[in-house]
Amino acid sequence: MQSMAPKTLVGYASANGSTRGVAEAIARVLTRNGVEVDLRSLSDEPRAGDYHRIVLGSAIHNRAWLPVAERYVRGMREALGAADVWLFSVGLGPMLRGPIGRRLGRVIPPKIDELRTMVGARDHRLFAGVFPREGVSLGARVLFRAIGGGGRYGDFRDWDEIEAWAAEIALATSEFGTNAHG
Predict the structure, then answer these.
(1) How does the average pLDDT of the chain come out, rounded?
(2) CA distance 42 to 40
(3) How confident is the model at residue 94 (pLDDT cuts 50, 70, 90)?
(4) Cβ atoms within 10 A of the Cβ of 148, count?
């Protein structure tokens, strides 16, 4: 028997796997809450018009989403504008400390905010990602320390925070019929 629930796309753009892991966790929580989910890389260019609800996320590099994610949103802007959309970004901001880090850590970069506004996203969340010491230049490590990252490296994803947000999406999915936009 085919499900009567609208299908939800959880799409992601990941540079090194951290964002893919967040997307997988979101998809698991949605599925556990009875939401039919397609988990897809945005490089596969899933047709946004095939979904009633869409959760999109990307790694943040240079204060912007990865190019594949930005192209996807711009190319699917019309279909995304007709769906219930939630966005998430994965980067270093939420893990920063100190006066500069705490202030900057939760600010949505302008390029990402433009995408959020363009599609009328219901919500956007910033999640901490993974920051390995290997492969990071000395200059980047010095900058990271200066803006509040300290000498901390590793996986900073807050799985409880990610799962709680996904549960909010599942609740909103069950409360809002086919499409909250109309």
Answers:
(1) 84
(2) 6
(3) low
(4) 20
- Spatial distance between the Cα atoms of 22 and 13, rounded to a whole number of angstroms: 11
Q: Is residue 178 part of a domain?
A: no
The answer to the question of residue 180 being in a domain is no
Question: Which CATH number is 166's domain given?
Answer: 3.40.50.360
Tokens describing residue 156:
């900073």
Asked if residue 163 belongs to a domain, the reply is yes
CA 13 centroid distance within chain: 9
Q: Is residue 1 part of a domain?
A: no
Q: How many structural domains does the chain have?
A: 1
What pLDDT, in 10s, does the model give residues 135-159? 666 666 666 666 555 666 677 899 9
Residue 54 and residue 82 in contact, taking contact as beta carbons nearer than 8 Å: no
Residue with tokens 């190319």: 75
| Burial state string for 110-147 with b = 16 or more CB within 10 A and e = fewer than 16 | eebeebbeebebbebbbbbbbbeeeeeeeeeeeebeeb
Q: Is 7 helix (H, G, I), strand (E, B) or coil?
A: strand
Cα gap 169→26, rounded to integer Å:
9
Nearest C-alpha neighbor of 66 from the set 8, 12, 25, 22: 12
